[in-house]
Write a structure and sequence with these properties.
This protein has three helices and twelve strands. By secondary structure, it is mostly beta strands. It has a single domain, classed as 4-Layer Sandwich (Purple Acid Phosphatase, chain A, domain 2), CATH 3.60.21.10. The strands form three sheets. The chain has a five-stranded mixed beta sheet, covered by helices on one side. Strands 6-7-8-10-9 form a five-stranded mixed beta sheet, covered by helices on one side. Strands 4-5 form a two-stranded antiparallel ribbon. The longest helix has 9 residues. It is globular. The relative contact order is 0.21.
Amino acid sequence: MKCLCFSDSHGSSYGMKRALSMHPDAEVVFFLGDGLCDFDELIYDRSRMWIAVRGNWDVNGILGDSMVKKTDSITLMGHRIFLTHGDMYGVKYGLDGITKLAVDQNADVVLFGHTHKMLEKYIPTEEGGFYLFNPGSIGGGFGIKPSYGVINITDSGILLSHGFI
């Protein structure tokens, strides 16, 4: 199962539209906040599952006709994926808060944004370990090339990677 992951579009849906056209086989699309109004333009394509959380800049917190939560989770192919923007867990100052969240939620993958910096980190534990994954910023800006995440979930495990627009 192929999933795309976006965060921090900050007023532009162009990068998400471009990435979606490059990955027509993506079945699930995650949005990690700071641009819900940009993501809202896309969710009417019913050929994919759309899952979003709101960020610190998403004042109204509305997507379609529903209020969007600050955190959410889903289990795909037996893997628990937890989503947050990251601001509530201090991700700009370190990974301790988001790491504790992963352990507390028994997550296999924690998806987060907020920093605009790509990250893929595996943290081993006695129970098997988990991934912390930040797709970067699909909106780019401030000298940052727009980026997104690709998550491939197979019977063999999880493969994470980044793409660029």
